[in-house]
Specification:
By secondary structure, the chain is of the alpha+beta class. It is about 30% helix and about 20% strand.
Length: about 180
């Protein structure tokens, strides 16, 4: 049985805000690209400790050196939110990137076909190798973005978090928030 990928194996759509007063003004309605992103939107929208949030807010422009293009590019993290911890009077500010773990770790290189294999085996290998090369570049670019975001957040007093399917399990428990 194939492993379910919350990031890619689902529907996409506009998220209908239940508490529009908590959402950053002048932004389009959030658009989820996976069931997992939608779950995170629900938490942001309904958790009373989250007082303000936004999806892909362009107000946070983080420059980074793109390893793919060899020039400075601009990165916009997925989510900005403000959390008022229980009993606190000051909010904690967070920038969050939502990505599957597979976009954060180097993939395993495909094995070349054995000597004497037919042309079709080499063609399949070339497709797997091209896919591998693209995934490697995606991971390298993500790491560059996240290093820049981490430093930007440190300088600006904002918390930084990369939300993966492996570290957000408690996020969906109504008694827990980040």
């Amino acid at each position: 049985m194939a492993k379910h990928n919350y990031y890619t194996d689902c529907h996409k759509g506009r998220y209908n805000l239940l508490h529009p007063e908590k959402y950053m003004p002048n932004l389009p309605m959030p658009y989820y690209k996976s069931a997992w992103e939608r779950k995170i939107f629900v938490v942001c929208d309904t958790n009373p400790r989250i007082t303000f949030w936004a999806y892909e807010p362009k107000v946070f422009e983080i420059p980074y050196m793109s390893p793919k293009y060899g020039r400075v590019s601009i990165y916009h993290p997925d989510i900005y939110l403000e959390i008022l911890p229980e009993g606190a009077t000051k909010v904690n500010r967070w920038l969050i990137e939502v990505k599957p773990t597979s976009y954060a770790i180097q993939p395993k290189m495909p094995q070349p076909p054995k000597a004497g294999s037919d042309a079709a085996a080499f063609e399949r290998y070339n497709k797997r190798k091209a896919n591998y090369d693209q995934k490697v570049m995606d991971v390298i670019v993500n790491l560059a973005k996240w290093e820049a975001a981490s430093e930007w957040c440190r300088v600006h007093g904002v918390n930084w978090f990369i939300a993966t399917e492996k570290n957000t399990g408690k996020l969906f428990d109504s008694s827990t928030i980040i």
